Amino acid sequence: MNVIKMNNLTKYYGKNTGVENVNLSVSKGDIFGFIGPNGAGKSTTIRMLLQLTYPTSGSVELFGLPLHKERPSLRRKIGSLSSEVHYYKEMTGKQILQFTAKSHGLSLQETPVYEYAERFQFDMNKKVKSFSLGNRKKLGILQGLLHEPELLILDEPTSGLDPLMQQSFFQLLNELNHHGVTIFFSTHVLSEVEKLCNRVAFIKSGKLLETSHMTEVKGMNERVIEVTFTEPGDKRKKFGLADIDPYAAFTQGVHYITVRGRLHEALQRIVQYPITDISIHKPTLEQLFMQHYDQKESDGDSR
Ligand SMILES: Nc1ncnc2c1ncn2[C@@H]1O[C@H](COP(=O)(O)OP(=O)(O)OP(=O)(O)O)[C@@H](O)[C@H]1O
Ligand SMILES: [Mg+2]
User: Fold this and answer.
1) Is the CB of 22 inside a 6 Å radius of any atom of ligand 1?
2) What range(s) does the ABC transporter domain occupy (predicted)?
3) Which domains does the chain have, with CATH numbers?
């Protein structure tokens, strides 16, 4: 069952494109990473899912229901965090959380908020005006989670959190997902997407470039060879490395060659020349993702 379905979702800000013709489905039980560079359209997409802004065209269905009609009945099922959160500065964290709980018909004691606050070392008795960026983020996260929703839609939930807190938070997402919560979140922390998510989508310049199952991404038969030849300088041309990988890169003395299958052949070619260092590894999601962008861009340039 699709918990989120976006149909040709498009948003223009005047002449600027927010996103264009995004078609994306999130299934029940998915933990779905939504990644892309600054200005790609992640927040625009998420803001439309949360009805903080409206599509120029296209539509969204949540739990099989068209968003514009059914939103009130869905509210209880969805937990959200938008990238910018603003609060009344004179209130304490606890007062804000009480208010949020009440809006879902709950008292704070009925929610897991105390447990979460402890996990995130969040002091809810302080006034918001004294909060650091990280504390404001934690408050936003607690607000989004306290009613134990079935679906989480989160825009960069870990930005502003220190690495330890990021880890605790991703751990919590993992636990919630194991208990059946569907999660759709944007992030720039690609290493976590790689570890946590079963699906991932890449967006750039408002266009969805690719949606993959993590197993497909991980199972890609690609290896990155990092090699330093004894003879100094860029050897891509001279040693025919571009024949192996037309997108081979050369930075700070190291050649980066991506090989799809035929590793044996590639190595035979490389070791014809004296080398001082070599390592072979699977590409990280970040490398796959950057390569993907580079290739699309150079394909576009050559047209
Ligand atoms: N309120 C707005 N008015 C005009 N243009 C906007 C507005 N909000 C976003 N945009 C534009 O829409 C595009 C997508 O922006 P968006 O904020 O969705 O990107 P993002 O992927 O969330 O980026 P980041 O990683 O920096 O958060 C950008 O070109 C941005 O300038
Ligand atoms: Mg954003």
Assistant:
1) no
2) 4-230
3) 2-217 (3.40.50.300), 221-282 (3.30.70.980)
